[in-house]
Amino acid sequence: MSEKNTAARSAHDLGLAAWFGGSLMGAIGLNGACAEAKDPAERAKLAAYGWAKWTPVNTAAIGVHALGGLGLIGANKARLSAQPGARANTVSKAALTVAAMGLTAYSGYLGRQVDKHGHEGAVGATEPQGNASEALAKAQKQLKITQWAIPAVTGVLVVMGAAQGEQQRPQSLVRNQLDRLPGR
Predict the structure, then answer these.
(1) Which end of the chain has the smaller Cβ count within 10 Å, N or C?
(2) What pTM value is reported for the model?
(3) Are the C-beta atoms of 129 and 40 separated by less than 8 Å?
């Protein structure tokens, strides 16, 4: 069996990079730009249109990341069973990935709620006007939180991936083997 996992590692990393980068750009660039629309009734609608165009790409990125992650778990199962730090990191990353998927799905739901009420007008994609309906204001307030939670959680996943790379360095592998010797 080959020791190289270039395809799985690339899928894992590129999918996560697109997910992280797209969510961060959307929160800053897309939602920020929509707040500049002259007509308040266009602001939430424009954001909804932009996010709708991004959703299929984001869904593919999440799927590619997940498939790459599963490929890496399969390729590294012996190391994961022998190296407790790698196992703990992998379990934590899996839990955070599921959380980020849930946040992403919930954000999509909230975006659809904002789109439904977008005709009411808004200060911005995630900022309701003073006269906004309760449904619109609630969805926008929750969306304001999820738009930052997604890049925060996916950013942590990037850092954890870097930590896993460090765990594969020869000195980490040797230290792990020495720690497993009787009497240590």
Answers:
(1) N
(2) 0.86
(3) yes
User: Residues 115-127: pLDDT tens digits?
Assistant: 999 999 999 999 9
Does the residue 44 lie in any domain? yes
What is the domain range of residue 103? 12-176
Q: How many domains does the chain have?
A: 1
Give the residues across from 127 on adjacent strands.
124
Q: Does residue 171 form part of some domain?
A: yes
| d(C-alpha 15, C-alpha 72), whole Å | 14
- CA-based nearest residue to 125, from 113, 134, 99, 153: 113
pLDDT in tens, 129-139: 999 999 999 99
Q: Classify the C-alpha dihedral 128-133-136-138 as positive or negative.
A: positive
Helix (H, G, I), strand (E, B) or coil at 71: helix
Nearest to 7 by CA among 99, 71, 53, 83: 71
- Token look-up 């992280």 returns 20
